[in-house]
Write a structure and sequence with these properties.
By secondary structure, the protein is mostly beta strands. It contains one helix and 22 strands. It has two domains: about 110 residues, Jelly Rolls; about 110 residues, Jelly Rolls (Sandwich), CATH 2.60.120. It comes from Hondaea fermentalgiana.
């Protein structure tokens, strides 16, 4: 893949409505970043180009780096491929990183990496810093949360849960479904996001009329979906073995872009 320009994701698109935003990152072009050796695909941008709230797929080329910089309102990273590094260590594929407001670092990659990144979407002082290696079997639950109504072989890796007394009540998870397995994500009145890692999944039946009527099946690797709220449960079935990043109940504390 080579670097080229494309229209920003905030441009009008048949995959955007008042109820959801859907991006197929695999078909988007890489765009330049402030570092000549780092490229990105913006899935959503709200605010100034280099200082707004943004969700992106980011690619570090070999021997790439960024100058040291802070992260107002926090930073969330999932290492999709390769090894990502900063002042606190080296983080291989599958690592989940949550940096609180006030964190500063100089990120880099020796051999290159691909990241799923959310900036300015973990606001609040004195919040936790998290590092999870999702390739460690002990981070996974063989029995997923009963609210997911899982059928077949489904595993869950909890990435973030609020503590008692926390103002923000968002949750972040990885879900892995073997081919043919299914689950149902219950109604999320405060928002839902999905990012598809390796594999493919499809909505089942008419579990969510907004999606099925829009012909948005199947969900393929690199697809991203953001729903400002879900009024009906969202049922998914694995077409192949698939891994999903899921964030829920977060758009009450992080207002949706308009």
């Amino acid at each position: 893949m080579s670097s080229s320009s494309s229209s920003p994701p905030s441009s009008p698109s048949p995959l955007s409505t008042s109820e959801f935003i859907r991006r197929r990152s695999a078909s988007m072009a890489w765009e330049a970043s402030p570092s000549a050796t780092v490229e990105r695909k913006r899935l959503e941008l709200d605010g100034p180009k280099e200082a707004g709230r943004v969700t992106s797929v980011v690619r570090y080329l070999a021997n790439s780096d960024f100058n040291e910089h802070p992260h107002p309102d926090g930073e969330e990273i999932l290492v999709v491929d390769g090894v990502f590094s900063d002042d606190s260590g080296d983080f291989p594929r599958g690592t989940y990183i949550l940096n609180p407001e006030g964190y500063s670092h100089a990120p880099r990659s020796k051999d290159g990496c691909v990241l799923f990144v959310k900036l300015r979407q973990y606001p609040g002082l004195n919040r936790r810093q998290i590092r999870i290696n999702s390739y460690d079997p002990e981070t996974w639950q063989s029995a997923p949360d009963p609210s997911l109504s899982a059928q077949g072989n489904v595993r869950q890796c909890p990435l973030y849960r609020p503590l008692p007394g926390d103002t923000s009540q968002e949750t972040m998870d990885l879900l892995e479904l073997e081919e043919g397995a299914s689950l149902t994500i219950p109604v999320q009145p405060a928002g839902l996001e999905l990012f598809v890692l390796p594999g493919a999944a499809t909505t089942t039946g008419s579990s969510n009329p907004v999606l099925t009527a829009s012909g948005l099946d199947p969900f393929l690797e690199g697809d991203w979906l953001k729903m400002l709220e879900t009024k009906t449960p969202l049922s998914l079935r694995a077409m192949t073995r698939v891994k999903l990043y899921v964030k829920a109940n977060h758009l009450g504390s992080v207002a949706p872009s308009g």
